[in-house]
Structure formats: structure tokens, C-alpha cells
Input
Amino acid sequence: MKLTYPTTLVLHALAQGFRHGFDILDVTGLPSGTVYPILRRLEQEAVVSADWEDVAIAREEQRPPRRYYELTAAGHLLLKTALARYEVPRSIAARARRLRPARSS
Amino acid sequence: MSSLALRLALWVIQIVALVVPAARRIAWRNEWEAELKHHASYLRRRQHRPWSTDMNLISRALGSFPDAAWIRRQFTLDAECVHDVVYSTRGLAKSPAFTAITLLVFAIGIGAAIAIVSVADTLFMRPLPIKDPSRVMTIWQQNRASGAERLDVAPGNALDWMARTHSFQALAVADPFTFNLNFAGRDPDYLTAARVSEQFFSVLGTSTIEGRLFVPEEYRRGAARAVIFSHALWTSRFGADPTLVGKAVRLDAGAPYTVVGVMPPNLELRLFDDRARRAEIQIWMPKPGFDEVESRLRVYGAWNVLGRLRPGVSIAEAQADLDVISGHLAREYPKTNSSISAQMIPLRAHLAGGLRDLLPFLLGAAAILLIVSGANVASLLLARGASRQREFAVRQALGASRLRLVRQMLVESLSLAIAGGALGLLVARWLLDVLGRFRPLDIALIDRMPMDARSAVLACGVTAIAALLAGLMPAVQLSRPEAVTALREGRTGSQRAVGRIFVIFEIAAALVLVVGAGLPGRSFMLIERVDPGFKRDHVSVLQVFASNRIDTPAKRIVFFDQVLERMRTLPGVVAAGGVSAMPFGEARVIARGLLEIPGQAAPSGDDGFVHTTAVSGDFFKVMDVPLVAGRLFVASDTSTSRQVVLVSRRAARQFWKGADPVGSRVRFQFSGQAFDAEVVGVVGDLRHEALDAPAAAELFLPYAQSGFRALTFVVRTAPDSPTDLRMLKEQIWAIDPVQTIFSAASLEQLVSKTLSERRFNLVVLAGFAFVTLLLAIAGVYGVISFSISQRVREFGIRAALGATHRDIVRLVLTEGVKLALCGIVLGITLALPAARLLKTLLFGVTATDPITFLSVSAGLVVVGAVACYAPARRAIKIGPAEALR
Output
């Protein structure tokens, strides 16, 4: 499994509780063309599991249900390896802290 | 605004979703749409929202493409193909100059091909708003003796064809005329109109888009006045008002007409055979039966005939049937019909007009241009490939199969071709607009050619061809295993050989197309230099048909004399006169009849006919026609004096065979009247129809003695005269304020108008030739530069061994000129048969004109040498030290 810097950021964001694709974009600042293929790859490697959110929430917000992603046990392990290799910049960590209360569900 | 951005973003997702494998497409789209909608509603809740957030939404949507591509790569067996696209796009983006040039070359080649194929498609393939158009024929008269084709049909002949043929479901006639619009307070104007016989619309197989066709009662004599409008007239003058149908409109001073229907658009029936005239029918009227008189008119062509073939009857069978009838008529009416036959042209071909003959050559030219641009891109790819040899070598060493590399190169050329094709569509649109603006009047439909799904399909086809042309050769060449070892050893001979073949071909193609423009170009120059028998500068021409108010010959003579008198008093007017049949006039008023000379056997067949023209005032002085013998008409030649005529030089030769005609008596008919007149003089010949049509035998009589209804004013002004067409028109309206002026133009314009078709053809051909030439120059330049960059070491060694600059330049030039010569030899062998396709465009030159071929060849050698100049200079600069690197 290729462990790149953007992959690390995505894993980190997931660990922080950012579960939806666009939320991960917001917190990491990476372009969607980078984040989504990473998510697909992580899902394929079973490092990340994905599912659809409850239809009730979606209906309330008048949109289709969103897909959410969560780290599996293997994912947490991988994040540990990744953090040993790369450092998450303080700015991103700060942004994660700032966004979390407003956006987590 | 955010909703617009969201719409755009969702639209992007819809399109990108096509890339995702079908099994996952719906889930994939739902995920993206949910995220985008959520994000949009989140943005909407924020107070301060700069426009960049909208852009952000769209750019996130665009990011779905790599996602989709990633999924596609996992799913597809052919994941490499996706990889190839990504890889080649990245590679092209890294060399923008190369990419830009390639795209430009592709855009030109593909654009021209799309444009020409669209023209062919519009004229021959696109559905017309009529039923089964391939069964509809236009039928014309053909004069086998003079070779004149597509002549209007004499009523008597048309009626006999209708009665005797068995090959058609029905034949119908249209009798075109100009319809004067006389409104008080407006400059009198006219519309082109046609009276049509009862079967006309069923033969044509069309119906109206508004209202109805004529009912049988409306074809009876004395029926209510019903008209059908053309779509163009309905939209331009009446704003496409749907309530117009059923209403009565006043079109002239007479009783109103009821509009019963409107014809469909894009039905452009060019019924007149006349190529210089406004030909589209604007108003249709029912023709109330046929007159007994009409069945006896066999000399003047007046009608247009349409026929719908009976099911199962082929075009050849119908033509044979008509030929038999023509043979019978020739025996029954030997005086008028001995050399007349019926000429059938399918409606489609008729609508293509002069382009019918040119189109095969143009399609060929477009194909050549496409191939040349493909070859050019191919040599660019080859040159670029040479610098990527290391990359290919490495990939092959790592186990890439040859097929894999070939495919990668093809994908690269395909991506280039697709982008080039998109630009090419723009080029094509522009070319079609230009064609529409310059179109000669006899080609239907090309000023309203749409770009639509059909064009898109065409464009895709053309683009695929271009990609294959450009990609295949370099791909095969560069992926050869031996290319790798060759590189190591510093040999690149085989690639240079391929490049040379391209250049030879490009030069040959350029020669074919430059000759293809050169031959008609020379013809055009020769035609322009033809002396029509008159001087065309500073002559104004105003054509009128005396209005109903001026209804007797005596009143007309007074009217014309008064107008001429007023015109003469205008400042700068040198001379003014009138003529019944104006050479190059917009409306052709041709009177042609038998000429009898008492005591002399009439010449047989066509030689017995003469064109009869009435003139008044100083016509011959205005036109600067020389008097050869005798005298011109004088003021004392009036309606009451003895009848006199002048004959043209050609008539003198034809009828008097060298004897002096002055003083002899002649008998002829003119506008229904018999004349017995004395020849008082001989004047020079006048060409009437076109510069490339020889003058016919012509007889002139004084207008005062003719009783004729139409007259054209001709006025010669001094070069610096302030008198213009408007002032001349006002002199006519001063005498009769409701007089319609059919056309007003300078003689120069009228003559030039007859050349419009040739000019159009020439512009199109020259455009092709020019672009191909440019591409060929670029090709020579590219190949020679490449060859020199590959031979730096060789040039270094030469320099070290004492080669002078002159030696080096000679070496490079020889290479270029050799290529040019090979291309020229190949080109000439191709051009000789190709030029024959242009035969109908040639005048005064043969299809093998040595002057054109030689000068084009010489020009191409020079061009080849010039293209080598810059590379040669670069070669000079290579020093001996280069050899060591």
C-alpha cells in the first residue's frame, strides 16, 4: 500500500471524525480529484469502511443521503505508521479543531 | 448565483458519470450529488459569500473526473487505456509549443474537411422539405447546335412534353415573373413571383407550413386572387405573423390578394436558369389554365418545368422518353426545334448549381488537406519521438510490449486530434459563414448551413481519420525494437527517410492544389480581359418595365424620351440612351427570331436566327460600340418614317457572307409585329450573356419604331461626375412616380456579377492551395531542421575537415531542393488527371496548360529552398567542437 503525504492527511481527518468526502476536502485543503481516489483506494484495501447515512437525516435536509467513511482497526494502525513518517502541519490540525464542533454529526 | 453554480456542477457530474462503470454509476452519482447539494446548502446559509466559493463548487465537481477515472481503471480490463490518456495529456501539457502547433495544423485540416463535407451533405444528403426528392426532376431546353444548356423552356415545347410523356406521374410548369409593388409614398419595388400550373405542388411533393395549398377552383380563370408566400417573404416582410393566412393583403395598385398559405423554409427552388439574377421565388400564384397562344410559342424560353418520375421509371428511361419526344418535335417544327432537346437534371443537382461540377474536386482537396495536415502532425510526432527514444527504450526494457507502445502513441495522436477537431469545428463554422457570404446566387441553401448533430458526427469521423493518419506511422516507426539500438549508435536514418516521404507527399499535394487554383486563376484573368464589344466603365444601367399607366407605344416613346432628356441635363452626363435587351442586364429580355432577306435562301437551323434589340438615344455612344459601315440611327428615324435597322458585324457575316449589307432589305418579327426594313449600317458585336459566351448575330431597330414595353436606360458619365444612381432614378420618378425600377447598377457591377461564380470557385480553390502550401513549407522546414539536429556530429566533422559555409549551405539546400523535386514529379503525375475535374472552370487554357504547370513547379522549388534557409543558417553555426560532444 502506497503511503503518501495526502493519504496521511486523509487518514488523519478521518481519525478526527470528519466522515464525509467534502468535509475531508474542507479540513485537509486537498482538491477533490486527489481525496476521492485516495478514499476509494483506502476502501478497497479495507483500511476504511463506507456506508450511507440514515435516510431520515437526508430527508430532513432535503437532499440525497451522503456516504460516510470510517477508519477500521487496520486504518488506525496505518495512521500510526503514517504519522511516524509524516507530520500533519499545525495549520491543518488547528483547522480540524475549529471545524469539528460545527460540522460533526 | 449559487444555484447556477450548483446546476453547472451537477451537470458536470452527469457527464463524468458516463466514465464510471455502469454497475457503480448510480451509487457514484448519488454520492457526488449528495455532497454537492449539501455543500451548496451550507454555502447558502453563510452570509458573506464571495464568488470564489461558487468557483470552488465547480472545481470540486471537476475533481470527480480523476475519481471516475480511478474507478474505471479498477473495473475495466483495459485499465491501461485510461492510463494512456492521462499519461499523454500530461506529456502534451508539458510541451505547450509543440501542442499548440499540432493543434493548429489539425484544426485547419479537420476544419476544412468538415466544412466541405458539410456543404456536400447539405446539398445532396440532408432531407429537403419535400416528399421523395430524388424522384423530382427539373427539365430544361438544350440547344445542341450552340451547346447552350439549362435554358428556360418554350411554352409550346413544355405543353407537348406534358401531353406526350409517359415517364412522369405529372409534369408541371412555373411561369416566373416580377411582381411590381406599387405603394404610394414608398420607392416602387418588386418581388420575384411565379404562376404555377395545377399539378405543381403535388409534383414538388411539398405542403405549406401555414394555411393550405391552392384548391382546384383557384386555378380557374376569374377565380379569387390567391397567393402563397415563401417562408423568407413571410418572415422578412410580415414578421412570421401566423394570422396573416386567410387575410387579404394589398400588394399593388389593384385589388387585394388573399394569402392562403406559407411555404416551408429551406425550400429554395432556383427556378430561373439565369445565374446572375435574384432567383428565389417569393410569391406563388395559380396559373389559370393554358392559352391556345402558348401552345404555339416555340422560340422564346419562358417557363420552368418540373416532373415527378413515375414509380419504377429510372432517370435514364425518362431521359430517353424525352429524347424521343424531342426528335418528333424536331421533325414537326423544323424551323424552331431542329436542334432543341430536353435536358433533365435531378432537383438536388439543380440546387447545387455551379458547385455541382466543382464539388468532386473540392472533396478531393479537403481530403488532401486532411492527409497533409495528418502527415505534418506525423512528422512533428516523429521529431518529438526522437527526443523520447530513451523513454521508449526504457519502457521496452522494462517489458512493455510493442503493441502497448503503439497504442500509447495512437492515444496521444487521438487526444491531439480530438482537441484539434474541437477547434476544427470553430474553423468549419467560420468557413461556412464565409462561403455563405460569398456564395454565387445559383447555389441553394449554403447561406443557412447549420452546425448540429449531423456536423458533430461528421466531425468525429473526420477526426478519427486524422488521428489514424497522424499517429500510425510514427507509432510503428518509433516502437521498432531496432530503433533503440539505432539511437545508441547515433543512427536515425530510417526516421529521416519516413520524414522525407511525408515531405515529398506534402509537396506533391501542394502542387496538385496550387495547379488546381492556378488553372482557374489563369482562366479568370483571361476572361476578365475579354473584350465584350463595349466599354464598361462609368456606365449606369437602370432597367424598367413601363408601368400600366404608360399603356400605349406612343405614350412609352414620350415617357422614355422625356426621361432621357432629363438625364442628359444632369451634371457630368456624357451620353444617355436606351435599349430593350441590355447586355449583362439583370432581367434577360431576349427577343430572338428568324431573319429573312428577300431573294436569298435562309440559312438553315440556328444560323437563320437573329437577336433583335430596340435602341433609343445615344445607346451606341454610351456603350462605345464602333460603327463599322453606314450610319447610326438619327432623330429623324421616328415611328412614322421608313423602317430602318442596323446589323452587327457577326450578323453581316452570317447572313450576307461578306457582301455589304447596307441598303438591303430584311423581314423579321418583333414583339408580335412584322417588320420590313432597310439596313442602314453595321456596328460592332456585343456580348450579352457572359464574357465567355460569344456574341450572337444581332439586329438593332429604333425604339420609336418597335412598340416595345421594356427599356433599360444606360447613361455614360464623366469620370468625376457627381451624378449617381439615386439622381438618375429620381429623373424616372419625376415623370412617373409609381414606376418600378427593376434594377439599378453600374455596368461594371453587372459584368462582374456574371463572374461571381468563377470568383467564388477561385477563392475556395485558392484558399485550399494556400493552406496546403503553408503546411508543405512547414513540413519541409520541420524535416530539414530535424535532419540537421540529428546530424550535428556530422556537420561538426565536416567543419573540422575544412568545409566552408558555402559547402554546408549547399549541402542543406540540395537536400531540400531534392525533396521538392521528387514532390514535384509526383505532384505533376497526380495533377494531370486531377485537373481534368476542373474542365468546366477553364477558359482559354487547357487542363494541361504548360505555363501553369511550369510556373507552379518553379515556384515550389523556390519555396523548398526558402524553407531550408533557416535550418541552413543553423548548420553553419555548428563548430568543429560539436563533433566531440
Summary: Chain A has one domain: 5-103. The beta strands of chain A are 48-52, 67-71. Confidence is low (pLDDT under 50) at residues 101-105 of chain A. Chain A touches chain B through 22 residues (CB under 8 Å).
